[in-house]
Amino acid sequence: MSEHNSRTKMNFFLQELKEEFGFYSSKRELLEALMEYGKCLEELSLEFRTDEYKVPGCISGVFITAELKDGKVFYKGFSESFIVKGFVYILFKALSGLTPKDIIDAEQTLKSFSKDTSLSASEITSRANSFGNIYDFMKKKALFIK
Description:
- This protein is mostly helical.
- The protein has a single domain (3-144), classed as Sufe protein. Chain: A.
- It has helices at 3-22, 27-38, 82-95, 100-105, 107-116, 125-144, and strands spanning 62-69, 72-79.
- Strands 1-2 form a two-stranded antiparallel ribbon.
- Helix 1 packs parallel to helix 5 (107-116) and helix 2 packs across helix 3 (82-95).
């Protein structure tokens, strides 16, 4: 898949989610949806649940690995929080398979998505901060991946 197609796929996925989240009439429904998405996250081996892979700034433990294949970054991760697992899943689905440059360039798109879907206004502020903290960690992994 070309870089352009990967970015288009990311934008399409985020647009679909934005529309889906727009149907929810309460924060509770949004949080329940996030927990459902979190169930889709593949399990991360215990060997990667260490400080080296831990996302700073998250109250619950969030651990992320990154692997470079054919110039594209692929992520795996885990969170102790069901809501934050949903954030992790969304970010992985949006960003895995992109080039490091595309991941870094996705910042404004993700900020807009977070704002437009009310993810940045979660009833639990620390959870809302997790979305940005996770993305920042993923960017750093993409920058320094070999």
